[in-house]
Structure formats: structure tokens, C-alpha cells
TrEMBL record:
The lineage of its organism: Bacteria, Pseudomonadati, Pseudomonadota, Gammaproteobacteria, Enterobacterales. Residues 34-64 are annotated as: Disordered. Residues 54-64 have a biased composition (Basic residues). Pfam families: Phage_tail_S. It comes from the Bacteria. It comes from Erwinia aeris. This is Phage virion morphogenesis protein.
Length: 148
């Protein structure tokens, strides 16, 4: 057993000693911080690993003076991107009807952009994921929770 496994085992024991309500509060705080990071990634039009999203196939400017807004503006709002915490896990997910659209873009699936339209193959644009920075945020939040 190396040092990291021993640390992980002790950390799990510490978290296990917390009451379910305290674990839920900690998970909710972690989920909210992770959601904020995911929202910033989407705003910057980049995947969690820092690579840029593939650009749209259609031009952003069709008519003179008209510019389409950036991708996923509404998707990154708290109305659609939910942060939940339970005693066992912290979850950041898309809610409701946008979940299907987010899945299509995240995995690069085929979909119809409009009813009755022809199917289009979308580029894969990773919307959610855990980066090294997110791992650091999680560790920081857990450690700071024990020093409160």
C-alpha cells in the first residue's frame, strides 16, 4: 500500500464518520463549485481538458449586422445545469428537455436541428467532465470542510 492509498483510506474513513446531513451539505457545496467551473468552460467554449470546441459548420453571420450568439448560452444557466448533492455523491447534470440536446453535442451524435429537417452529424463537444483543476477544487473543499 503506497502513501496515496493510505491517505485515500483515511480520508474515506473521515468522510464516513460524518453524519449523512453533513456529507450531503459537503457534496452540495462541491457540486456547486464544480458547476461554476463547468459553466466557465462552456462560456469559454472549451472542453474540460482545455481544448477548444469545434466551430459551428454554419456561419455565425448570415445577414449583414446579424451575429448568432455563442453556443450553449442558455444551456450553462442554473435553470438547465443542476448541481445536486446527496450523502453519497455530488452530481452536475443537465435537467429536463435540454438533457437530450446536451447528450447529442457531448458525444457527437446525429440529430435533427428542427422538426422535419434532415439529420445532421454533430461534432463532439465535451460539455461536462472533471479536469485536474476540478480535482484540486474537490480536494480543497473536502479539506476545508474538516477545518470549519
Amino acid at each position: 500500500m503506497n502513501g496515496l492509498e493510505a491517505f485515500d483510506a483515511r480520508l474515506n474513513a473521515l468522510i464516513g464518520n460524518l453524519s449523512p446531513a453533513a456529507r450531503k451539505e459537503m457534496a452540495r457545496t462541491i457540486a456547486k463549485r464544480l458547476r461554476a467551473g463547468q459553466q466557465q468552460n462552456i462560456k469559454r467554449q472549451q472542453a474540460p481538458d482545455g481544448t477548444a470546441f469545434k466551430p459551428r459548420k454554419a456561419p455565425a453571420r448570415k445577414k449583414k449586422g446579424r451575429i448568432k450568439r455563442e453556443m450553449f448560452v442558455k444551456l450553462r444557466t442554473a435553470k438547465y445545469m443542476k448541481a445536486k448533492g446527496t450523502a453519497d455523491d455530488a452530481v452536475v447534470e443537465f435537467a429536463g428537455n435540454v438533457q437530450r440536446m446536451a447528450r447529442v453535442h457531448h458525444y457527437g451524435l446525429r440529430d435533427r436541428p428542427a422538426r422535419g429537417g434532415k439529420e445532421v452529424q454533430y461534432e463532439a463537444r465535451l460539455l461536462l467532465g472533471i479536469s485536474k483543476n476540478d480535482e484540486a477544487i474537490i480536494k480543497e473543499e473536502i479539506i476545508s470542510y474538516f477545518y470549519r
